[in-house]
Design a protein that fits this description.
The structure holds 2 protein chains of 2 kinds. Chain A is mainly α. Chain A has a domain of about 220 residues: MetI-like fold (Orthogonal Bundle). Chain A is about 70% helix and about 0% strand. Chain A has a two-stranded antiparallel ribbon. The radius of gyration of chain A is 23 Å and the shape is globular. In chain B, strands 6-7-8-3-9-10 form a 6-stranded mixed β-sheet, sandwiched between helices. In chain B, strands 13-12-11-14-20-21 form a 6-stranded antiparallel β-sheet. In chain B, helix 2 packs across helix 3, helix 2 packs parallel to helix 4 and helix 3 packs across helix 4. The N and C termini of chain B lie far apart (about 55 Å). Classes of the chains: A mainly alpha, B alpha+beta.
């Protein structure tokens, strides 16, 4: 990849990681150079940054370092010291078929949840954007779900899939599917995925809707005069202009599926018989806080950190190149 | 290329607001029509109904013998140039130009030829692989024009295309649009609130006010005989001076001041008199005149706009900068240059002098009336 300066956005990739977040945090209409401020002392900006940096260090970097450190030790469950074991925590984890099975499920779970929550969110946003009469009510109803806390959503999901009173279980029973959430691996996985998707749709909906409304009306009208097929218009004009929003959501949703579905999973599989699907982050929690294997749990969370890191780099490298920021 | 017939078209919004009221315009093939009026007069709504971006509440729009009321915008065979250009920000200039024809299944070689031709016409060859954001305002405007040209449509629709440009660029783009339209001979409808743009571009002007047509005509006809006080004050800069006057015989009383001329007896006694700033001149000794108390003067270089009042009523006169000004000046006007309007309806009243002076060209009628 060349670093030659150019006007085309694709070859500007080396700076995209910074550019991406800067673009998202600044108001779209403001030119970036307008933010340049002169400080009287060179230390003043660092002073202003200090509270934020303190929080990041305390709650992010320090625990990360601790995790990395303890992943090389075998910790006594009751806190009476620890033994250095080298990388054996890692080798144990990576050799475990159980762990690899959970990793496989996590990959499928993340891919399915991300794809469907993005796709359904986009579909609803496009439809809501087209609604003229009563659109405020319509949008509010769609956004509502997002105000529910994840464990509550998990609980509601559980009730929807309850063996005795769950309407969804009764519904699928009409088609001959005897759904046993919490008992049957596939059924639990299905319910988990559906609830996780359902929980994330409103978030994606809000972003896609605001993205759609950020597309100038006249550009849509120009497309209306240039192209008769609505689907083709969507594919060639609307979708490319939504790409920055979609890319942002892709990263957020991947992270959501990997980490923030913890609450949903916890409600669904807590105190249930063993053979239930869980994701990597839940496994970290199980081994660390239920199994008291802090070293192994730390090793797992380091692995998880590396996975997310690689995934994010991949997304910036290969997907963001196709994104056009206006 | 084809004619456009707009017949009794109305736009009624939900809630009963009538933005366009039964407007009819017959536009000949190749004609350049300018819809002009203040904001909110319905000119853009009318254009958007022709484009298919607004539904037509009543009446019909015909483009080339085909009623297009229910036809999709993309199938009306028209191209539109928007005020803010509406370029596709994610496409290069080339793709912006090609997009419309590409969607019509035009062969690649043909698309390429058309885009190259349009780019050459508009001097955009150098910028074909740039994105719109790397272009200046004038270049973006050209791309928007190019996108319309490439389509080779039956008609061009322009929705205030120059209002985002600076004054100098606006003048040069105005010239380019006019030349291009003459060269291509494509029927065009152009919406603007700028009367100067309207005057300079139009084959025929349509002056709209409150959703209704005030006047349709060639620019100079509209300028020389505005159909109403609205048109009189809208077309021409500075705006025509409009004064209330009482007629007594052949005398016109403006407050305490009087002008006398002949053959006024057919007019009503209550009148609104229109005086173009550029028709007013300094009275010679012995000529009848109106005394203008000068409030302030605007220097335009070639001429000087003198703002003042005649008995408290504001009047603007465009005078040569060579003329020395005192606090008050005596102004006069050729009787043939007076415009008469009904003070209640604002409609133009026939000029009683027309009958006897029609053999002479109007521009030479500078002799003062005997008084």
């Amino acid at each position: 990849m060349t670093h030659a300066p150019s006007l085309s956005p694709t070859s500007a990739a080396p700076t995209t990681a910074a550019g991406f977040f800067r673009r998202f945090r600044s108001a779209p209409s403001e030119p970036h150079f307008a933010k340049r401020v002169q400080f009287s002392s060179p230390f003043l900006p660092y002073f202003f940054l200090a509270p934020q940096m303190a929080i990041i260090f305390t709650f992010f970097y320090w625990p990360s370092v601790q995790a990395i450190q303890s992943s090389f030790y075998l910790e006594d469950p009751f806190g009476f010291g620890s033994t250095f074991v080298g990388i054996s925590n890692y080798t144990d984890v990576l050799k475990s078929t159980e762990y690899l099975g959970i990793a496989r499920f996590t990959a499928v779970f993340t891919a399915v949840v991300t794809f469907f929550s993005l796709a359904i969110g986009l579909l609803l946003a496009v439809k809501a954007d087209g609604v003229i009469r009563g659109n405020a009510t319509y949008k509010t109803l769609l956004i509502w779900v997002y105000a529910i806390a994840p464990p509550v959503a998990g609980l509601m999901g559980m009730m929807l899939f309850d063996q005795h009173i769950g309407p969804l279980v009764k519904f699928v029973a009409l088609f001959g599917w005897d759904m046993k959430v919490g008992l049957n691996y596939t059924d639990t996985a299905t319910a988990m995925i559906i609830v996780s998707i359902w929980k994330q749709i409103p978030y994606n909906f809000i972003f896609f809707l605001s993205g759609l409304q950020g597309i100038p009306v006249s550009v849509r009208e120009a497309a209306l005069m240039d192209c008769r097929s609505g689907f083709r218009r969507f594919r060639t004009v609307i979708l490319p202009l939504l790409a920055p929003t979609a890319f942002f959501l892709l990263i957020i949703n991947t992270t959501y599926a990997l980490f923030d579905t913890f609450g949903v999973i916890d409600v669904m599989v807590k105190d249930k018989a063993a053979n239930n699907p869980i994701t990597l982050v839940y496994k970290v929690y199980m081994d660390g806080f239920r199994g008291n294997d802090l070293g192994g749990s730390s090793a797992q969370s380091v692995i998880l950190m590396i996975i997310v890191f690689v995934l994010t780099i991949f997304q910036f490298r290969f997907i963001e190149r196709r994104v056009h920021y206006s | 290329m084809s004619a456009i017939n707009i017949t009794n078209v109305s736009k009624i919004y939900a809630g009963g607001v009538e933005a366009v009221k039964s407007v009819s315009i017959d536009i000949a093939d190749g004609e350049f029509i300018v819809l002009v009026g203040p904001s909110g007069c319905g000119k853009s709504t009318l254009l958007r109904m022709v484009a298919g971006l607004e539904t037509i509440s009543k009446g019909t729009v015909e483009i080339g013998d085909r009623i297009v009321n229910t036809v999709e915008p993309a199938e009306r065979d028209i191209a539109m140039v928007f005020q803010n250009y509406a370029l596709y920000p994610h496409m290069t200039v080339y793709d912006n130009l090609a997009y419309g024809v590409k969607n019509r299944g035009t062969p690649k070689a043909e698309i390429d030829a058309r885009v190259t031709e349009a780019a050459r016409m508009l001097q955009l060859e150098k910028y074909l692989d740039r994105k719109p954001r790397a272009l200046s305002g004038g270049q973006r405007q050209r791309v928007a024009m190019g996108r319309a040209i490439v389509r080779k449509p039956a008609a061009f629709l322009f929705d205030e295309p120059l209002s985002n440009l600076d004054a100098k660029l606006r003048v040069s783009m105005r010239g380019e649009i006019k030349q291009l339209q003459k060269r291509l001979g494509t029927t065009s409808i152009y919406v603007t609130h700028d009367q100067l743009e309207a005057m300079t571009l139009a084959d025929r002007l349509v002056v709209l006010n409150g959703g209704e047509i005030e006047q349709i005509g060639r620019p100079l006809d509209v300028y020389h005989s505005p159909a109403s006080t609205f048109v009189a004050s809208f077309i021409g800069s500075p705006a025509m001076n409009l004064l209330r006057a009482n007629r007594e015989g052949n005398r016109l009383h403006f407050g305490s001041q009087t002008l006398e001329t002949d053959r006024l007896s057919t007019l009503p006694t209550e009148l609104t008199i229109g005086l173009r700033a550029e028709d007013l001149r300094i009275a010679q000794a012995g000529e009848q005149s109106l005394t203008l108390k000068i409030d302030y003067v605007e220097e335009l270089g070639a001429q000087r706009l003198v703002h003042g009042n005649v008995d408290g009523k504001a009047i603007t006169a465009a005078l040569s900068p060579e003329i020395e000004l005192a606090d008050t000046i005596a102004l006069t006007i050729a009787p043939s240059r007076l415009h008469f309007f009904d003070p209640t309806t604002g409609k133009r009243l026939p000029r009683p002098l027309d009958a006897c002076t029609s053999t002479l060209p109007q521009a030479t009628m500078l002799e003062p009336a005997a008084g």
